[in-house]
Design a protein that fits this description.
Oligomer: single chain
Order of helices and strands: HHEEHHHHHHHHHHH
Distance between the termini: 27 Å
Helix content: 55-70%
Shape: globular
Number of strands: 2
Radius of gyration: 21 Å
Amino acid sequence: MTSMLPTSAGQYHWVAELAPIRYAKSLSYIAGTYCRNIQCEYGLTRTGMITGFARLSIAASAAYVAATEIQGLLTFNIESYVSHNWHGTLIYWAILLVAALVNILGIRFFPHIETLAFVHHVCFFFVFLVPLVYLSPQSTASFVFANFENAGGWESNGISWGIGLLASAWAFVGIDGTSHMSEEVRNSENVVPQSMVIAFFISGAMAFGASVAILFSVGDLKTILSTSTNYPIIQIFYTATQSKAATTVIISGLMLTSVFSTFGLLASASRLTWALARDNTFPLARYFAHVGITSAYGWSALTM
């Protein structure tokens, strides 16, 4: 789809263009908002921006994870520190502010920042993996592949299993974000789909490897689930390394990955928001669709 119709609008535009006219309105509403022949109708359908809200939520989730990981490290290293929810909220907003500044003031360097993020992502995978494989107490294969644990308090094992999949699925949520950058990429009909496929296989392989390694290295479930940091992964690495310094370095690298993700996710979310505004799908659309003379993107959409 990205190869056929490269556009910042993404899913809702594709549905509106390709769905049968009879069902285009309802189907494109589900995808994002109603659009026909590129010009969107402004009306009740403007509330159907599911795609836009989903993209914004994904960007927010990465910043939230990074913020709470910082809180977890503070709890882990400072015994006198008392964690409060508003601490995490302030750290969360600080990360979003940094991401917004990078997207606005550092846009010329953004490709280099994303390249650095990719290098960090791949290299840190091995930094993450080696302590788990060589230092952690290893569980049996039957525990990893045959045992089922429902420690979340859910009455249904099926629901527990489905919710457990979200952590693995999170590795793939940013892949389609590349499509929303299509209008800023040369030869986008080839480059963008190739980037999405490559990212799918790299992220998929790394997520699977990390998941299996964590399951083999999880140790005693009661111990890691009762950790005061609220992040079992911190306890897992501390059990493996027996060093607060080493654990802090590794989790800091994991946190930095989430921060880098926030940069890219915010960029793609802003382009989708800009496309929705360009198609006149919500109030003040003209303001959020505005693109400055000296910039190739809408900073007003990004701040939204």
